[in-house]
């Protein structure tokens, strides 16, 4: 049977403060994602973009949760859209938008599994809560929210919490963690491959371990790929770049190994910011990685 993929764009930029990341879905489409995946003999349906409400950016939060209402509303919509795609037996492929959209993606997907796993490919942990966040930006909180930690208007999306268990998470590429995030990682025993492990063991061993680890304990895995997981040299169009990241080659290898593993049941590519990009390079990298994730081969 032909694998059927449904694309959902989420032009969200309210989870952080830099303008432009709302144009990520357009940039990724412009980089030719539909044609690229159709060439792999996949059936692609582009469902267009979720509607994002406006928020008064100056009316900021005393509670250290910027644009909370608008971010929550958009994620409610996204969760039900993703849920619908899943019910139709299709693979949800979501384009961000900032990383706060993982709240809705995971809420929509997790109810279809007893033990959803998550690969969080990112320079950051996104494990802050309002209490620990240095910025109040919700894109730095989405993984914590999926663990049931944070404001109730976010954790309750989809009508249940938590969405995932700490032991079903693997973070890959971390190199910038806040104090509270480090504490939470230790407390919950979250598996993290920092850049140190990637340098030391190599991406092959890291992915082998991560795949094996998730295969043993999960019945589906959501890939949440923040383009800032890659080195800014390879993916310059992101709002919170951190030097010393995962290379383009290593990322392709990671996607190829995930494809071989047949582990991934939904995916999102986030934080592409065309205003900060160089001639759409980062969107093109995202599309190239999707190619590998869905089985592109040279020979
Ligand atoms: N999805 C992202 N790019 N997150 C960056 C988060 C940065 C920082 N840890 C914060 O909480 O504000
Ligand atoms: Mn990040
Ligand atoms: Mn992130």
Automatic annotation (TrEMBL):
InterPro entries xref list: Arginase (IPR014033), Ureohydrolase (IPR006035), Ureohydrolase_dom_sf (IPR023696), Ureohydrolase_Mn_BS (IPR020855)
PANTHER family (alphabetical): ARGINASE
Sequence positions that bind Mn(2+) 1: 99, 122, 226, 228
Descriptive protein name: Arginase
Family statement drawn from the similarity comment of this UniProt entry: Belongs to the arginase family.
Entry's EC annotation: 3.5.3.1
Cofactor: Mn(2+)
Entry's Gene Ontology molecular function annotations: arginase activity; manganese ion binding
Domain of life: Bacteria
Pathway involvement of the protein, from the record: Nitrogen metabolism; urea cycle; L-ornithine and urea from L-arginine: step 1/1
Keyword Ribonucleoprotein carried by entry: no
List of residues binding Mn(2+) 2: 124, 126
Keyword vocabulary terms for this entry: Arginine metabolism, Hydrolase, Manganese, Metal-binding
Organism: Sutcliffiella cohnii
Keyword Manganese attached: yes
Catalyzed reactions per annotation: L-arginine + H2O = urea + L-ornithine
Matches recorded under CDD domains: Arginase
GO BP term (any one): arginine metabolic process
A cellular-component GO term for this protein: cytoplasm
